[in-house]
Structures are given as structure tokens and as C-alpha cells.
User: What shape does this take?
Amino acid sequence: MQRPRILVIDVDTDFVEMVKMTFEPYFEVVSALNRNEGMEQAKKKAPILIILGYLEPRGTSFQVHNELRENLTTKNTPLVVVDVCAEEYHRKGWRRYEGLQMEAEDYVSRPLEPSDLWEIVGGILRRTAKQEPADLKEVANRMEDVLKEIDRIELMLTR
Assistant: This one.
């Protein structure tokens, strides 16, 4: 069975790598470092979820968001917006209230732990799977198993 795809669009290569390391055994993670590449990948690769982070210049993430929501291929694809950390708002000209106005399934700020991102994505895919075909339900069930395994490992590590 082909692994479902997640697309991450962000200029921060460290963040992109963290997403890949978090999801790759279970998902194919496709990445884009700019607007044009992100839109091309979103249309061509048909991801089951898009993680949209910070893009330059200022306002590009909003452009991508609008284009994703207006495009027939991507308008119903679940979207997670990952904000810059609060210390960077002023330097990057980012305003949190603007980001909160985006139509996204979730809106989170950095720093972000891989396990937190996993739970966010898992929750979205579980909700989406209730409305989608059986293959997405299988993905959601697999994510549920992995979440249980993460909980088990965290419990062992805290002992």
C-alpha cells in the first residue's frame, strides 16, 4: 500500500527535517521551501494534509493559504498553520491575530515538539477519516496505534 502524503511548506529546513523525522515511517513527507514549489507540490502530489509554516517575504504564507483554499484540488485538504515563535513576530512582521484568521484545522506556535505535532495531525486525520474513504480510516487507526506506542515509551522514560 502506498503511504499517504503530508506536505510541509516552510523556509526553515530544520523544521522541515523535524516533520520528516516525525512522520516518515508512516507517511510520505513532501516538502517545499517557497510559495511556487508549495503550490506545485500541493496540486501534483495530492497530500492528505498540509503543514504551512513561515515563508518569505512577509505575507507569502497568507497568499499560499488563500491559493490552497481557492484551488479545486486543495480546497478541502486539511491545513495546519505553524506560526513563528513569539520572539520573532516583530522581526518578521508577523501578527498572530492575522494568522488566526486563516481557515485552518489547527493553528499552533513554535517551538513545537514532534509528539505535539503528531497528536495535532493525528486528531485532524481521525476527524477527517470519519468523513473520508476507508483508506484514510486505516491511516487514522495506524496513527492511533503509534500514539499509544509513544505514550508507552514516554511512560517508560519517566520512570
User: Anything to note?
Assistant: The radius of gyration is 16 Å. The domain at 5-113 is CATH 3.40.50.2300 (Rossmann fold). The mean pLDDT is 84. Residues 5 and 46 are 7 Å apart (CA to CA).
